[in-house]
Design a protein that fits this description.
Distance between the termini: 36 Å
Number of strands: 5
Order of helices and strands: HHHHHEHHEEHEEHH
Mean pLDDT: 85
Radius of gyration: 21 Å
Oligomer: single chain
Number of helices: 10
Strand order of the largest sheet: 1-3-2
Structural class: mainly alpha
Amino acid sequence: MSDAATSSTRDRFLHGDLPFEDALKEVTGTDLDRSHLWHILEGLASERSATAPVLSAHDAHILDDAGFVADPVAAASARVDRDIRMQNLVHESLSIPDAAERLGVTPARIRQLLTEHRLWAFASGRNRLLPPAQFTSTGQVPHLDRIVPLLEGDMHPLSVQALLTTPQQSLVVEGEPVSIAAWLTGCAGTDDDISQAADVITSAQWESA
């Protein structure tokens, strides 16, 4: 979004000419209805009401001096950004029937692959959804089934999607870092190829532990 467009949205919003939902859509490019916005508000309310240890004045002063200043606006913005990205991921992910059609198999086969940890899914309401990073336009990312078992079942869906799609400094093709999904798509699937991709996942999970 250009600076001029942002300024126009800001002025219309501040003057009351642009509803919040429309301003959010213009700024983020994401169309969220009121049910999605309410979900975000509920999340903010639950985080606000969560109990946290109270810092002493001395400790609070030390944190302030170090630059760790509480910023409720930043915290709320981060929460909204995360929830918007999650709503986008839910919209882009494949249901079990969708995944079956993409792979040319039955839904029962997709469930079997999930049970065997050769595909990864997350719960969304009563459904299970498969992040799109696991698929090409015509099927599954090649060799992905050899590293999916390394993805922990309780990982956040956004973390899984980012881990598979973010360029990695240790995975280089023609001098440029590539994502795990791109690496697997372009590699021959040798043990060394798979090991390099697996090392990225293992390192990321160690860092988040």
